[in-house]
Amino acid sequence: MTRPKTSANTSNFVLAIGTLASIIIVGGVLYQAQKDDLLDSEILSIPEQQVITLPEAPEVPEATIPSSNEIIDEEMEATEEKPTLPRLDESDQFVRDRISMMSSKEGLKTWLSTDDLLRRSASYLDGLSRGVILGKIFPLSSPERTFATHRDGDIIWLNAGNYERYNATIQVLTSIDMKLVAQMFHFSRPLLESAFSELGYQPRQMDGIILTALDQVISTPVIVEPIQLTRDSVIYKFADPGLESLTPLQKQLIRSGPENTQRLQQQAILLKNSLLDPNGGD
To answer: Phi/psi at 16 (nearest 5 deg)?
Structure first.
């Protein structure tokens, strides 16, 4: 099988949280697929365990996301009060307000209802960087309709009609400008660094985890051919050993379909490139 400034400080606040929102949405799409599978285990295909244990402590990736050499208007700096970020313990409402200003998509409302959003984000990204989906971190809603397969004699296929279930959720991610997200990443760094430090990570490790999580998405094979499955009792698996050996994160992406996978990959590439080249080559 082929495997295939702004000058307004309020705007700065909104865009800064875009970094958190966009990366979390990537994981949210994957978890929505997983949650649907768990709730419908008798007809699902390629289910994940309800309790997922992280692989044994691999070496934590390290990287440095370059700082942006943003030019600050000295007169503006002297006359305008600089915005300040809230403390990590008091950041939930701040995040909710800013994300609500950025998007009115219904799919975000359930996610925003939880607490410790930034701490959950750090844990989620930590898992994604290892190819693991920590499914109970965010209470996201399930995709539309149920998961389905179809048979051709003794051969079981993944039903391509499943792919459309994820379209609405992925539209949330693709509506966000990744260049602006990366631009404001540095503004929100202190909050993320605090959340990651509680997990025992240094800033360089945080950067490495974020970039590795994006690489997990980017490196997922795009499968355009029909996908064959095998069945063991009520459990379905990919018939192709190469696909079955992929990380849980990548399997979930494949379940969203080739077009949705490519849309997510394009956003991940844009975000990664913008993070690594914050000044656009200037």
So the answer is: -60, -45
Q: Is the sign of the CA dihedral 102, 104, 105, 106 positive or negative? A: positive
Domain boundaries, the chain: 9-147+163-221+248-276
C-alpha 262/C-alpha 254 separation (Å) is 10
**145-160 per-residue burial string, b: 16 or more CB within 10 A, e: under 16:** eebebeeeeeebebee
Burial category of 92 from C-beta neighbours within 10 Å (exposed 0-12, middle 13-18, buried 19 and up): middle
**The pair of three-digit structure tokens given for residue 262, joined into one six-digit string:** 């490519």
Could you report the per-residue pLDDT of 64-84, keeping only the tens digit for each? 887 765 544 444 344 455 568
The position carrying tokens 């409402």 is 93
Q: Which of 19, 12, 66, 18 is nearest to 281 (CA)?
A: 66
What is the SS3 assignment for 141? coil
| Residue carrying the six token digits 């799409």 | 29
CB 22 within 8 A of CB 121: no
